[in-house]
Amino acid sequence: MGEARTITSGTLRLDGYLARPLPSSAKGAGRYGLVLCHGFPLESEGAARAGQSFPHLADRMAADAGWVTLSFNFRGTGASQGDFSLAGWRSDVTAAVDDLLTVEGVEAAWLCGFAAGGALCLCAAGDDPRVRGVATFSAPADFGEWASDPRKLLALARSIGVVHTPGFPSDMDSWARELREIRPLAAVGKIPPRGLIIVHGSSDESVPMLDARALADAADGEVELRILAAAGHGLRHDPRAIAILLGWLDRQQL
Known about the structure:
Elements: E1 2-9, E2 12-19, E3 32-37, H1 54-65, E4 68-72, H2 86-100, E5 108-114, H3 116-126, E6 131-137, H4 144-148, H5 150-160, H6 172-181, H7 184-187, E7 195-201, H8 209-218, E8 224-228, H9 239-252
Parallel strand pairs: 3-4, 3-5, 5-6, 6-7, 7-8
Antiparallel strand pairs: 1-2, 2-4
């Protein structure tokens, strides 16, 4: 069902995977496109394993929703080139949208992201009217914790492997400034009346549930907010979250 795909983001090549629905009479089958964005790698998985299960999720969206679905690895993760920077990751989201819209038959694109990937989907969509809607799961409202100690984040990024080039970043001040200036909370209000759903676990141990409520408030009520009882941060593997995503995609079809 799926195929390996290379996405160009600036001068970098990103590792991607494209899943297509089987020919069917399903409403909109093959006309709608979805980009899946993983989060910042956990220390236990490291950069090499980041987003490892997302091709499987892409297959699921293609089979069950009838959507052409593109998953990819952000720069510095998996087999993708480059090193982590927040602005770089935001550019990678836009590059994935660019790529998806070149797929034959795809007429429109939506974004779905988890954790930091979800937050960056909000930022990318806020500035890109081509994106018809956004679904986020466990997304932070800002990157304030990272911004409070950029050198600690850089040390973590090196230990995980998302930063691996000696001497990167060449300008630490600019790298750190991105952590303050890229703000999902400021971008989310630009998305409605396009589709928007924010899903969060009530027991998220990494991102407070208050972040989801803050994002919903900033969208001025034009949003679906779903809080999953007793759910933690890893909503990618929560069947309830995936069912919510499938239902939301069905409601997006024009």
